[in-house]
Structures are given as C-alpha cells and as structure tokens.
Write a structure and sequence with these properties.
alpha/beta, Enolase-like, domain 1, TIM Barrel, 2 domains, eight-stranded parallel β-barrel, three-stranded antiparallel β-sheet, 12 helices, about 30% helix
C-alpha cells in the first residue's frame, strides 16, 4: 500500500454553545477533512483544525497541502511513515503554513491499521476495549444556569468525574462555580479544575488551599501555571499533596520529556498526535507517571488510551461534531469504547460532505443554526451567547 492521492473538504459551522476558558473563547467550528488515498483505493481520515479563526478557502488549503506536505507523502507506505524517525536539523524544522501535522498522523495510522486489517488500538497494542471518560464543560463562558444544566445532564448520562474551568479574575466566582458543580452531580463524584495557565505558582497554591478549606476535594488541577515553569509545578506537587498536578498539554514531545525528567508533573496530559503520544506514553510508563488523554477530535484518542498502560482518563466535552462521520465512537455510562472496526473506525459522512461542506470562508452571520449534538439529545439547550 502506497500513498497515491489526497482529498480535502472544508467545513465551517456554528457550535451549539460557546466554548472556552479564562484565556480564550470560540463559537464556531473551523475544520477540514483530510483523506489520504492509497493506491489500493483505501482511504485514511484525519482532521485539520483551526480553533479561533476560519481556515482559508478550500482551494488555498489544497494548494498549501500539495506544496508543503504532499511531496514527503506521495508514493510512501503509511506503515513506514508512522514509525519513521526524522533527523531535525536546520531549515527542515519548520511548521506547515496550516495545522496539517495531527491530521496527517491520524490519517496515516488509519491507513496502517486498515492495511493490517485490525482496529488501530489493536495495532498499537491495546490491552482493553474501553477507558473511563470524564465530562468536560469547556464552560468558562456559560451562564450559571447553563453551567448547572450541562453538568447535571452529564451526570444523568452516567459520568462520575467532571472537569470545570477556573481562572476568573474574581476568585470568588471560581469558588461559587465549584459549589454549583458539586451540587449538580452525584455525591462522591470526582472533580477536576483546569486553570489554563491563569495563575503563578504561589497564587495557585493559595487558591488550591482555599478550595480545600471550602471542602472541595480535587482529583487534579490542570495547567495551573505557565507550561515551562517547572519549578513552580514542582512547588505545587510538594506543597499540595492532596491533589494531582496535571500538565503537559501545551508542550511538544521534547517539552513533555523535560517536564517528566524535572519531576514537575503527577499526571501527564496528552492529545491527538498519535505517534508523538505513543512515544511520550512509553516514557511516562518508564517513570510510572499516569497519563490523561485530553480532547481529541471525535474522540480518536481512545485508541492510544486503550493501548498505553498509564492512561486512566479520557476527556469528553460534548462538542457538536458527530455529524461529520458515519458512526461516532461510542460512549456508554461514562466509558469511552474503542471501535472494533479496521483503522480508527471513523469514516467521513457523505451526507455531511453534501450538507455542511463550505469551500469558501463564511462570515459569522452566515453560519446559521448549529448542527444537532446527538450526545446532548434530551439534555440542556445551551445558549450561544454573544
């Protein structure tokens, strides 16, 4: 099997709620589906994401991919590319003009697993078929009423662990939301907070102690301080042993290795670059550090989660993306289930291609109504506040 062609389909549509944290907010989805086509006709699927701004017109995405990415892919074997180690030197260390990297990795792994005739998690060496999921609100910009409705709905679906955003300039607001969360979900639920680097180390320690005095037991605090403040993270690990320090989300493989070697993390946070995640996951296993898989597009991260022995949790944040594929990855009673279909199990929906493809950039006022979030049927109707 060798790579023979590619296809790109641009999508742009409204989210069903405003998502974000103390630093950012987003109310639209801006992605392009990348299909890598083998000479056998088999297709591997990945998604190019732009969180805050629309991707350029489809013709420009195609041009950039053909010129910058395709020359290194054309005629190559996917199973060889996913394992290839590149020597990074000089001018070959540069970013693509658009965020192609993750989409390429996922599409190549999809093809490699299909060629082997097995689900991707099996190709990666999985020992299980499901992993615990926690409900994540991406909730910083929701009203209190919508915040409570969101987490009460997640609790009713069987989730037993919940993560909310903190880092508001008024810390009393963070404390109030934590109290609302505790009341909205079942007794004994596990609670996590995500500061998205909003605090300094001493500020974080002061606020964690205040949270503890308020009677809230935290499973972890995520990204409490800037990503490269290893000394600050070590301080928090030592001074707040009652909670885990979860970090690494914003670091590349080299940064994650340095984070581990500095002894600055209790739980390593990884995302969607499958090759990179597997490499750093092996390193985490050597150091006996648990791993949490953060948001991955359409939950494709369940494959690495099922394969790595140190993964305890996978994030799920109820984003309205399921309509993009024929069959989304299944989630039941707070567990995310690895598909048993060859490859990663996601196939681009032809209905979505016909209905939601947007070759040209649309203004916000042209997006119309958000697609239905099938996971939220019967749940809260969250407002898309301006």
């Amino acid at each position: 099997m060798r790579l023979d062609g590619f296809r790109l389909t641009r999508f742009q549509f409204a989210r069903d709620r405003v998502i974000g944290d103390s630093q950012v907010r987003a109310d639209s989805v801006n992605v392009a589906a990348l299909e890598l086509i083998a000479d056998t006709g088999v297709t591997g699927l990945g998604f190019i994401q732009a969180l805050f701004h629309p991707l350029p017109d489809e013709t420009e995405i195609v041009r950039a991919f053909r010129e910058e990415a395709w020359p290194a892919l054309q005629g190559e074997q996917p199973a060889a590319l996913v394992h290839r180690v590149n020597r990074l030197r000089g001018g070959n260390q540069r970013s693509f003009p658009l965020p192609f990297d993750e989409a390429i990795q996922i599409a190549l792994w999809d093809l490699a697993a299909k060629e082997a005739g097995v689900p991707l998690h099996r190709l990666l060496g999985s020992r299980r078929e499901r992993v615990r999921a926690y409900a994540s609100g991406l909730d910083f910009h929701l009203s209190d009423d919508d915040f409570v409705s969101f987490f009460a709905h997640a609790d009713a679906l069987g989730y037993t662990a919940f993560k909310m955003k903190v880092g508001h300039p008024d810390f009393e607001r963070d404390l109030q939301r934590l109290a609302l969360l505790a009341k909205a979900v079942r007794p004994g639920a596990r609670l996590m907070i995500d500061a998205n680097e909003a605090w300094s180390a001493k500020e974080a320690l002061t606020k964690l102690e205040a949270i503890r005095r308020a009677g809230c037991a935290l499973l972890w605090v995520e990204d409490p301080v800037p990503r490269n403040d290893f000394e600050g993270l070590k301080l928090l690990r030592a001074a707040a042993p009652w909670t885990l320090v979860n970090s690494g989300e914003y670091l590349d493989v080299t940064g994650k290795r340095q984070l581990i070697e500095a002894g600055a993390v209790d739980m390593l946070n990884v995302h969607g670059h499958i090759t990179d995640v597997m490499r750093v996951g092996w390193l985490a296993a050597e150091h006996n550090i648990p791993v949490a898989v953060g948001n991955t597009f359409l939950e494709v991260g369940v494959h690495v989660a099922a394969a790595l022995p140190e993964v305890e949790w996978v994030e799920y944040s109820f984003q309205n993306l399921d309509h993009l594929v024929e069959e989304p990855i299944r989630i039941e009673d707070g567990w995310i289930c690895a598909p048993d279909r060859p490859g990663h199990g996601l196939v681009l929906s032809e209905t979505a291609r016909r209905t939601w493809a947007r070759p040209r950039v649309l203004a916000d006022g042209e997006l119309g109504e958000a697609p239905v979030n099938s996971r939220a049927i019967g749940g809260p109707e969250l407002k898309r506040t301006a």
